[in-house]
Design a protein that fits this description.
CATH superfamily of the largest domain: Tetratricopeptide repeat domain
Largest sheet: 2 strands, antiparallel
Number of strands: 2
Radius of gyration: 59 Å
Strand content: 5-15%
CATH architecture of the largest domain: Alpha Horseshoe
Strand order of the largest sheet: 1-2
CATH class of the largest domain: Mainly Alpha
Structural class: mainly alpha
Shape: rod-shaped
Distance between the termini: 106 Å
Helix content: 55-70%
Length: 245
């Protein structure tokens, strides 16, 4: 059966020339033997521990290469590269140097493939700005057709009432200068009728103007507090308004 590179490396370590101190070498070989057995079983953690124990007893350069190979099996490429470089520092032969450099390149390429992608440092987009608050729109008072009609009608009625009232006063003056009693009575009756009509016209005109003004106020489309109250007085009543015109 063809052995893996780790087993070959271990066999090379065992077959390396021994120094004069045979006892440490024998102890190291015992650890190496157990490392080979653990490696064959796939127990790479035990194999690594035995190799490190062997190196502690007998620091042979070949053990550095074997330890690096086991780190590769454990997917610890950073540790493997460190031990490969320590092995290169011992100045091995040309072929071992070439093989070790190739192993380092392979391990570094594996590290780059396994490295997670760099975090996305793009700042998140800013939150959308709230829509601009539109100012409350109001309807100009002069665009209120009903209010305009009430005010104009009230103004016309008031003017006509004043003209009629002026005619009534003129009839009273003429009645005082009438040449006969009957003509005096007729002029006074006409003056009373005109005065009554003028009061109705002027009162109605004022009422229409008031209604138009109130319609202007109540027609404001903005939401705001308003109040309308009628306060009785000794001479009639008083209309009060609280709000924006």
């Amino acid at each position: 059966m063809k052995h893996s590179l780790v087993v070959v490396a271990l066999l090379a370590v065992i077959g390396a020339p021994l120094t004069a101190h045979a006892a440490p070498a024998d102890k190291a070989n015992e650890h190496i033997g157990r490392a080979m057995q653990a490696h064959e079983k796939g127990d790479f953690s035990v194999a690594l521990a035995e190799l490190e124990a062997a190196y502690a007893v007998d620091p042979r350069p070949e053990l550095l290469y074997a330890i690096a190979q086991v780190h590769v099996k454990l997917d610890r490429c950073a540790d493997a590269v460190a031990f490969y470089e320590r092995f290169l520092a011992t100045k091995p032969g040309p072929q071992d140097t070439a093989d070790t450099k190739q192993a380092i390149q392979t391990c570094k390429a594996k590290q780059q493939q396994a490295a997670p992608p760099p975090p996305d440092r793009t700042p998140p987009p800013p939150p959308p700005s709230p829509p601009p608050q539109s100012a409350p729109t109001t309807r100009p008072w002069y665009t209120d057709k009903l209010g305009d009609a009430l005010v104009i009608g009230g103004a016309v009625s008031t003017i006509v009432g004043l003209v009629v009232y002026s005619g009534a006063r003129s009839d009273i003056s003429d009645a005082n200068a009438a040449p006969s009693y009957q003509e005096h009575v007729d002029l006074v009756d006409d003056a009373e009728s005109k005065r009554t009509l003028s009061v109705v016209l002027i009162g109605g005109g004022v009422a229409l103007i008031t209604a138009g003004v109130l319609h202007y106020m109540l027609g404001d489309r903005r939401i705001e507090p308003r109040s309308l109250a009628v306060v009785p007085t000794s001479e009639g009543g008083l209309v009060t308004w609280i709000g924006r015109f």
